[in-house]
Each structure stands twice: as structure tokens, then as C-alpha cells.
Design a protein that fits this description.
Largest sheet: 8 strands, parallel, barrel
Strand content: 15-25%
Shape: globular
Structural class: alpha/beta
Order of helices and strands: HEHEHEHEHEHEHEEHHHEHHEH
Helix content: 40-55%
CATH class: Alpha Beta
Distance between the termini: 18 Å
CATH architecture: Alpha-Beta Barrel
Strand order of the largest sheet: 1-2-3-4-5-6-7-10
Number of domains: 1
């Protein structure tokens, strides 16, 4: 499989996308592409409803972040789920812990999965966050145990489960982590987090903010910081495609640090290159 072929299956994250941006996404992306709407600190959970409705109208699949510790109560979760499913036809969520102290009864993502009655509210599939480079505040052993618990709890309720990783700048680390995940018996689809094209200073800023310490050292090296213009994840995609047979079911998941429209164009161009190569080979 070529890198372009591997890049044909992807999802993308958007942070507070405007109506104009969503309209452009509808023109750029293939209908049904998953667009994740992030949970913004200090924003009300129902602020994601408007973008979800607009994405659905644009022919895209809205996937909404639910940040457990930002939910004030069980009623807060119930209300936002009813609006998301009723107004936007949302069936997929990404359930995360969220930063800071718990505002209500949900201490972490597992609590939402266990107590949120997601299936009854029309949710069919959830994503679970994971960290190829580890988490700055959570021990690796706890991360692994928590992943097992979340998958088991969601599966027992009839929810489909996928995994979405934090972004990394190290193809080697991503591949090693995926192999370890598969060897542990977890076969769920993994959305491999990649930073969409943006400037090196911006990538370094986001890497520090998100605790991506291992691959940050390589990105901050003299060679990387000497690059001019925007940097994309082509090298990592090439590495992943070369190891695809060992990695199980995966797709790319782009973080749009350089802007959601620019990232969508990049992802679409990569995917179309693969489609074009396949058509040429079959002609």
C-alpha cells in the first residue's frame, strides 16, 4: 500500500468552526467524512450543537467531544445528548476526561461511559482517547488499564468502540505503540493522530501544550526548526503505510492546528492522490 492509498481514510478535528468554514468543508471533503468538534474549556457543552447541525447539513458526519469533568450534572449530559441526537442526528461521540477538576458527578471518561446511558440516547459508537507517547500526568500502567475498562464497559452496553490517539511527530513511536496495542489483544480501529500542516513554531507550541515530549525533541532539533513554511506529516504517513499489515484497522486523524480548511484541503489532496494512482493503474 502506498502512502497516498493509506491516506484515503481519514477524519479531521475542528475547534469552533464557523459557518463559513463548515460550508467550505462541505465542498472540500467527501460526503460522510467524520469531522470531530472539540470541547472548549469553559464553554458550555451545548455549544457544540450548532456546529453539529451545520456539519450534518453540509453532508458530513459530526463526531462530538464529550468532556466528562466539564459536565455539571447528569441532566447536563442528558440535555446535550438529546439536542445532539435530535437536532443533528449525532450517533458518534469522542468521550474524554477533560482538564481540570470535575464540575459534577463525572470524574473521568469511564464514568460517562458507565453512567451516561449513551445507547438509550441514540449513540451507537464512541471514541476513546489514547496516548502513544504517554500522558504527562497519568502513569502508563493506569492508561493501559483504563483503556481496557472503557472498551469493556462500552462493549457490554452494545456500543461500538474506536480509539483516537493524541498527535505525535514520531512515526517510530506510533508504530511501536500500535504493535504493543495489537499484541495486547485490542483490535479496535485506531484513528492515528497527526498534526495537519502548519508552521514549525506553531507545532512546537501545541506539542508543549499537549505534553507530546518524546517527539518534540526531534521537531525542535536544528534541522526541523530551519525549515521554512508549513510542515505536514508526509514522512509519518509513509512510515505507517509501509507497516500497515502489522498495524490492524487504522485511519488517519488530523488535528487542524494550521486551520481546519487548510487541513481539510491537505487531507483531501492526499486522499485524491491515492484515488488517482489507483485509477491510473486500473486503466
Amino acid at each position: 500500500m502506498t502512502a497516498s492509498d493509506f491516506a484515503r481514510d481519514f477524519s479531521i478535528e475542528a475547534t469552533r468552526p464557523s459557518a463559513s468554514e463548515i460550508a467550505q468543508l462541505g465542498e472540500i471533503l467527501t460526503p460522510g467524512t467524520s469531522v470531530y468538534v472539540t470541547a472548549i474549556p469553559k464553554a458550555a457543552p451545548n455549544e457544540t450543537v450548532g456546529p453539529a447541525v451545520a456539519l450534518r447539513r453540509a453532508g458530513l458526519e459530526p463526531v462530538i467531544h464529550i468532556a466528562a469533568r466539564r459536565l455539571a450534572s447528569a441532566d447536563t449530559l442528558k440535555d446535550v445528548l438529546q439536542r445532539l441526537t435530535g437536532e443533528a442526528g449525532v450517533q458518534h461521540l469522542l468521550v474524554i476526561g477533560g482538564d481540570g477538576d470535575a464540575a459534577g458527578i463525572y470524574a473521568d471518561a469511564l464514568a460517562v461511559i458507565q453512567k451516561g446511558d449513551l445507547r438509550r440516547h441514540g449513540i451507537e459508537e464512541i471514541g476513546i482517547g489514547s496516548y502513544p507517547e504517554g500522558h504527562p500526568r497519568i502513569p502508563t500502567a493506569r492508561l493501559e488499564a483504563s483503556l481496557d475498562e472503557k472498551i469493556a464497559s462500552a462493549t457490554a452496553q452494545g456500543l461500538r468502540v474506536n480509539i483516537v490517539t493524541q498527535f505525535s511527530f514520531s512515526g517510530e513511536r506510533i508504530i511501536a505503540w500500535l504493535k504493543q496495542l495489537r499484541n495486547s489483544g485490542i483490535k479496535n480501529r485506531v484513528g492515528i493522530g497527526l498534526a495537519g500542516p502548519t508552521s514549525v513554531p506553531a507545532l512546537i507550541r501545541y506539542a508543549k501544550r499537549c505534553g507530546v515530549s518524546t517527539s518534540l525533541r526531534g521537531l525542535a532539533s536544528g534541522m526541523a526548526t530551519s525549515l521554512v513554511g508549513n510542515v505536514g506529516p508526509e514522512r509519518i504517513i509513509e512510515m505507517l503505510s509501509a507497516s500497515q499489515r502489522e498495524l490492524g484497522e487504522t485511519r488517519l486523524h488530523y488535528f487542524s492546528f494550521g486551520g481546519v480548511v487548510q487541513t481539510a484541503r491537505y487531507a483531501s489532496d492526499m486522499a485524491q492522490a491515492g484515488a488517482g494512482q489507483k485509477a491510473a493503474a486500473n486503466s
